[in-house]
From TrEMBL:
Domain NAD(P)-binding: 5-309
Family statement: Belongs to the NAD(P)-dependent epimerase/dehydratase family. GDP-mannose 4,6-dehydratase subfamily.
GO MF annotations, alphabetized: GDP-mannose 4,6-dehydratase activity; NADP+ binding
Protein name (record): GDP-mannose 4,6-dehydratase
NCBIfam families recorded: gmd
PANTHER family: GDP-MANNOSE 4,6 DEHYDRATASE (PTHR43715:SF1), GDP-MANNOSE 4,6-DEHYDRATASE (PTHR43715)
GO biological process, one term: 'de novo' GDP-L-fucose biosynthetic process
Lineage: Bacteria, Bacillati, Bacillota, Bacilli, Bacillales
Native organism: Cytobacillus oceanisediminis
SUPFAM superfamilies registered for this protein in UniProt: NAD(P)-binding Rossmann-fold domains (SSF51735)
Catalyzed chemical reaction(s): GDP-alpha-D-mannose = GDP-4-dehydro-alpha-D-rhamnose + H2O
Cofactor: NADP(+)
InterPro entries: GDP_Man_deHydtase (IPR006368), NAD(P)-bd_dom (IPR016040), NAD(P)-bd_dom_sf (IPR036291)
EC numbers, comma separated: 4.2.1.47
UniProt xrefs under Pfam families: GDP_Man_Dehyd
Length: 320
């Protein structure tokens, strides 16, 4: 039986990856931070099948201990301070967790002599103020937020450990990927949740920032398959994972409101509070390398993704 250690197990990606690995017969260990209020929402359906280990990416001792207990064949580093907007409010914390935390995890693996394979959750935010369109594995980075800067560090330290110590370390440069399990602070889920609440009569407006930003949005459930596939190859490498399509925030908003038969212009209010000090205007990834080498393709379309999320939020909010 293969064993996997997932950091960030209670997040969107961690929970989908745990679903996938359990379905493949893996023993799954999940690293969890100690918090005053526990949040198992995304993993409540598989809670009994996961071995939770407490730890923090800032604390090497806890990672060493987790690796010692799990003896993993594969480590997926999905934990991070992952919200771009908050990374300006907590730039040092973001750097410690999202950046230096990767080195701590790599060190825990290297010092264990276990030969565990390593996946680093890199991000399209590293492309930031893009210097090339569409973005590929070879596009230079130009991050635009403390989060993006920290992810660039995490990416390069992963490449460096592969080249320095011959670790099987892969960096997946994932473009935005969403689902009903997405955190409410991200624009996608904020919109689908609000649309559901407006439709159900429990909210009457939606305050948003920049509607012109363009993103390449895919379904998180499709994207975790790519993570797993990277670690099953003969050689470690880096891959862009994206749909190859881009849409504005406004299109996301329109599609979500349309689905429930409402006009978005009647509910959306521009609020300067949600504009960012520096913006990423356009992201669109080229997933050709992943298609060719990993035989990976996204399955859920932009429209289907939005409808899936609105449906789920309608269900959730009508239960309340
Ligand atoms: P990101 O690509 O990781 O930053 O994902 P987000 O979902 O947080 O943001 C996507 C885009 O939506 C960014 O360009 C934001 O500026 C824009 N946006 C517009 N209004 C909002 C809002 O109210 N909340 C968030 N999170 N983003 C917003």
């Amino acid at each position: 039986m293969k064993k996997a250690l997932i950091t960030g197990i209670t997040g969107q990606d961690g929970s989908y990856l745990a679903d996938l690995l359990l379905s493949k017969g893996y023993k799954v260990y999940g690293l969890k931070r100690r918090t005053a209020t526990e949040n198992y929402e995304n993993v409540k359906h598989i809670k009994d099948e996961i071995d939770f280990l407490s730890g923090d990416l800032r604390d090497l001792t806890s990672l060493t201990e987790a690796v010692k207990i799990a003896k993993p064949d594969e480590v997926y580093n999905l934990a991070a301070q992952s919200y771009v907007g908050d990374s300006w409010k907590q730039p040092i914390y973001t750097g410690e967790v999202t950046g230096l935390g990767v080195t701590n995890m790599l060190e825990a693996i290297r010092l264990s002599n276990l030969n565990a394979r390593f996946y680093q959750a890199s991000s399209s935010e590293m492309f930031g103020k893009v210097v090339e369109t569409p973005q590929t594995e070879k596009t230079p980075f130009y991050p635009r937020s403390p989060y993006g800067v920290a992810k660039v560090y995490g990416h390069w330290i992963t490449v460096n450990y592969r080249e320095s110590f011959n670790l099987f370390a892969c960096s997946g440069i994932l473009f935005n990927h969403e689902s009903p399990r997405r955190g409410i602070e991200f624009v996608t889920r904020k919109v689908t949740d609000a649309v559901a609440k407006i439709k159900l009569g429990i909210q009457n407006e939606l305050r948003l920032g920049n509607l012109d930003a363009k993103r390449d949005w895919g379904f998180a459930g499709d994207y975790v398959e790519a993570m797993w596939k990277m670690l099953q190859q003969d050689d470690p490498d880096d891959y862009v994972i994206a749909t190859g399509e881009t849409h504005t925030v406004k299109e996301w908003v329109q599609t979500a409101f349309n689905y429930v038969g409402l006009k978005w212009e009647n509910y959306v209010i521009a609020d300067p509070k949600f504009f960012r000090p520096a913006e990423v205007d356009l992201l669109i990834g080229n997933p050709q390398k992943a298609k060719g080498q990993l035989d990976w393709e996204p399955k859920v379309s932009f429209k289907n993704l939005i409808e899936m999320m609105v449906e789920e939020d309608l269900k959730r909010n009508s239960k309340k």
